[in-house]
Structure formats: C-alpha cells, structure tokens
Amino acid sequence: MELVLPQFGLFFWSVILFLSIFLVLNKFAWPKIIQGIQEREKSIEHALQTAELARDEMKKLEASNSKLLEEARLERDQVIKEARAIGEKIVNEAKEKASLEVAHMTSTARMQIEAEKMAAITELKNEVGKLSISIAEKILRRELENPGEQEAVVGRLVNEMNLN
Fold first, then answer.
1. What is the per-residue pLDDT across 13-56, written as a single tens digit (0 to 9) for each?
2. pTM for the full model?
3. How many Cβ atoms sit within 10 Å of the Cβ of residue 153?
4. How far apart are CA 41 and CA 36, in angstroms?
C-alpha cells in the first residue's frame, strides 16, 4: 500500500521536475510549436482558398463546356439540316434531269417511229406500184398477145383520149 500513498520527497521532486521541464519547454519549444501550428493553419487556409478558387474555376469551365457543347449541337443540327437540303436538291435535280431525259428520249423515239412509219409507207407504196406495174404488164401481155386485141386496145385508148 505504500506505493499508492504519496510521499513528500517524491511529490516535491516531481513538482520541481515538472516546473523545470515546463519552463524549458515554454522558453524553447512552445514558440516553435505555436509557430508550426500557425504555419500549418495558414497552409490549410491557403489550401482551402485554392480549392475554393479551383471549384469556382471548375464551375466556370463546366458552364463554358456546356455552352460549347450546346453550340456544337446547334452547329451539328445546322450541318445536318443543310446536308439534307442539299441531298433533297440533288435528288430533285436528278429527277428533273431524268424527266427531261425521258421526255427527250420519248420525243426522239416518236420521231424515229414516225420516220420509220413514213419510210415503211413509202416502201409499201413503191412495192404496191411495182406490183401494179407488174400486174398491169402481165395483163397487157396477155391481152396484147394476139394482133386483133392489140388493135382493139389501141382504139379504146385513142377514144378515151379524145373524150378526156
């Protein structure tokens, strides 16, 4: 139980030692410790201010990025709209060109058909004429084979000439 009860000598030297350590620490260590704490506090405050500035800058950058993104979207939509308009214009021009080409080809084909029709009619007339001459020649040869018939035909022709 003696260990639990304080003795005067031990108490006295403990207090003296405590006060001497306190005075030495107060003289040499406390100013440096307080200075270190103050520097640390200033460093933390500076870091907080820097973080706040960085946060504000990030907000500005986000706003700027949002604005740029919106502008890019608008520009993309405009480009797509222009591309569609150009595409439609090209398609319409191609349709018009095709229509003109078809009309030209149709008129050319009709003209060729008409020309071929006229050529066929002319050829048919020529063939009919040739056939008529051939038939007339055969009929005349048959009729004019004997001399009596020849005289009768010549007489008929002369009478028809006189009448006309």
1. 889 999 999 999 989 888 998 999 999 999 999 999 999 999 99
2. 0.41
3. 13
4. 8
Secondary structure of 24-52 as H, E, C letters: HHHHHHHHHHHHHHHHHHHHHHHHHHHHH
Task: Identify the residue whose tokens are 């001399």.
Answer: 147
Question: How many CB atoms within 10 Å of residue 142?
Answer: 10
Residues 6+ apart with CB under 8 A from 143: 149, 150, 153
What tokens does 103 get?
């009309």
Please, are residues 118 and 109 in contact by the beta-carbon 8 Å criterion? no
In one letter, which amino acid is 122?
A: T
Pairwise CA distance, residues 66 & 59, whole Å: 10
